[in-house]
Amino acid sequence: MTTRRDTPAPQRSARAPRHRTGAPPAPAGAPLRLTARGAALCIVLASLLSALAATAVELPAVNGAAFVAACVLAALTVRSSDLLALSVSPPLAYFCGVLAAECLLTLGGDSFVRGVAVGLGARLAGAAPWLFGGTALLLVITVLRGLGRNVRELGDELNGRRRRRPRRGPS
């Protein structure tokens, strides 16, 4: 039987550690970037938690303000290649978060389905201006960050065209 001291320690290379995809890790000062899925999940969680908080403090504006804040944060932190996917996600993400909150709030009531339907309808009606404003603000931010480029690339991909190369200045 060999002891641990008998076996030599494995040699480590002097190179920087790599991520499991093979890409080097991001520098320490690099900004945080989320995928579109991660950003949409943040909106769902913010909607869920703020719906529960709004019910607890009996102030519906908490829910809407948290949705707008989550939309702005998502638009600023998503990767530029995922802007198109994020731009269509906020209303559905809000719906999923609020549906989960209404299911939690209705548990133990007389009629679960009716309670969820009424609660969801009332919450969506009250949050409509916030939904519109948050989604519009997200679209403005994503347009400024390069949403048009994502739309052109999608059109090129769907039409079978090659990727466009950046134009060079006059020689």
Helix/strand layout:
Elements: H1 36-57, H2 61-77, H3 83-87, H4 90-106, H5 112-145, H6 147-159
Helix pairs in contact: 1-2, 1-4, 2-5, 4-5
Kindly list the characteristics that best describe this protein.
extended; 171 residues; mainly alpha
Query: Could you say which structural class the secondary elements and strand pairing correspond to?
Result: mainly alpha
- Helix content range: 55-70%
- Describe the biggest sheet? none
Give the beta-strand count.
0
- Report the oligomer: single chain
> What gyration radius follows from the Cα positions, in whole Å?
23 Å
H/E series? HHHHHH
Q: Name the average pLDDT.
A: 84
N-to-C terminal Cα separation, in Å?
Answer: 73 Å
Number of helices: 6
- Kindly estimate the percentage of residues that lie in beta strands according to DSSP: under 5%
Low-confidence stretches: none
Q: Indicate the overall shape.
A: extended
Walk me through what this model shows.
- This protein has about 170 residues and is mainly α.
- About 65% of the residues lie in helices and about 0% in strands.
- It has helices at about 35-55, 60-75, 85, 90-105, 110-145, 145-160.
- Helix 1 (about 35-55) packs across helix 4 (about 90-105).
Task: Write a short abstract of this structure.
The chain is mostly helical. The chain contains six helices and no strands. The longest helix is centred in the C-terminal third of the chain and has 34 residues, at 112-145.
